[in-house]
Amino acid sequence: MLERSLFHIAFADTWGRQMRFIAGPRQSGKTTLARIKLKTAGSQKLYYLWDLRSVRNRYKANELFFTSDSPPRKETKQWVCFDEIHKINGWKNILKGIFDATQENYQFIVTGSSKLDIFRKAGDSLSGRYFTFQLFPLTLKEAIGRPQIEKSECANPFDFILTQINRQAKNGQKALEQLLAYSGFPEPFLASKTEFQKKWARDYLDRVITEDIGLLTRIADREKLHDLYQLLPEMIGSPVSENSLAAHLESNPVTIKNYLRKLQDFYLAFKVIPYSRNIKRALLKAAKWYLYDWTRIKNPYKRFENYIAVELNSRVSAWQDITGTEFNLAYIRDKNKQETDFVILKEREPWLMVEVKYSDMPIENHHLAVSNVLGGIPVVQVCFENNIASQEKKNAFRISASRFLL
């Protein structure tokens, strides 16, 4: 069983009585994570999938139905998991009533394959009763069995780099290649068979668009949404123009913007926005888009960049959860088309620049120039090539992905 970093984060005592909302891509392991927590807490019986009519009928008969499966205990709170409850009309009020009545004796895990916070537009009856966590595809740390993320690693970027540059794992490069080939979704990753992965990926997209987006949104033209998603693999690493997409799909930019938002809300893709403050001639508008399933990208260089984007997105999300400090991922691109693939922002200030190369090579001067403009923050060039660990300048480093991502 693969141990996940989020297990140690989401179920820490730090979060007190609050419900733990765990969102993330379909089949990324949310249910497995919740079931493991229930098992370790001795609450195996208290898992409920709200897609099942039997569960909904039990609720209609008695809103506190789960207490009959395992009555309240004097000594300790019991963990309960409600899976996919957000598909039920009035789910927030259902949860509010259950939580308010039983929070002294039970703690709740709520899981779903869409962003649970997208339903808060008209106010939130659950305000103050939950914290949201996101479970992303497998990271390299998880794949090699080192899932723990330390709070100290995001305190200082130079300390972080020096720690990572000296990390090694015997099976690190092999696990990296396995992730790139079969994705970070646990089932195809563990199967490690090309035929299985291709069939899984094709069925996966159909289920998300038909069952998740189709059920929970008003989008009628799902075929056009499917076509939009199929265009993104060719655009990885480049700013995406909504106007160009609209022209290609014979639609309008407003519709395309809405479709892209739905791809993000349901964890098919995510965007990385440009950082422009203090950068002369910076490009101000278009975001870059990346896929959670990087195996859909045929070009190995673009696939590797997409994989690094997902890894960095997962890491900054974990840092934000652990520390309470705001971390974000952005990129830098000026009007001369000189670009740094990623910049990690800490409390909206540049913290660490990351350039992605498939093969090791000297760091280009424009990255160093931007670093100086941003106050001398470090630059890390991450490559697929194994056994690379060197310092090129005072604030510039070249590191293999199999080290940097541990």
Give a quick precis of the structure:
With 406 residues, the protein is of the alpha/beta class. It has helices spanning 5-10, 30-40, 53-61, 91-102, 140-143, 157-165, 172-182, 186-191, 194-216, 222-231, 242-248, 253-265, 300-323, 365-373, 401-404, and strands at 19-23, 47-49, 78-83, 106-112, 130-134, 269-274, 288-291, 327-333, 339-346, 349-357, 379-383, 389-393, 396-400. The protein folds into two domains: 5-134, Rossmann fold; 140-404, no CATH class.
Give your account of this protein's structure.
This protein folds into two domains: 130 residues, 3-Layer(aba) Sandwich (Rossmann fold); 265 residues, no CATH class. It is 39% helix and 18% strand. The protein has 15 helices and 13 strands. Strands 7-6-8-9-10-11-13-12 form an eight-stranded mixed sheet, sandwiched between helices. The chain has a five-stranded parallel sheet with strand order 2-3-4-1-5. A hairpin with a 2-residue loop joins strand 9 and strand 10. Helix 11 packs across helix 12. The two termini are 19 Å apart.
Quickly list its features:
single chain, 406 residues, alpha/beta, Rossmann fold, 5-stranded parallel beta sheet, 15 helices, globular
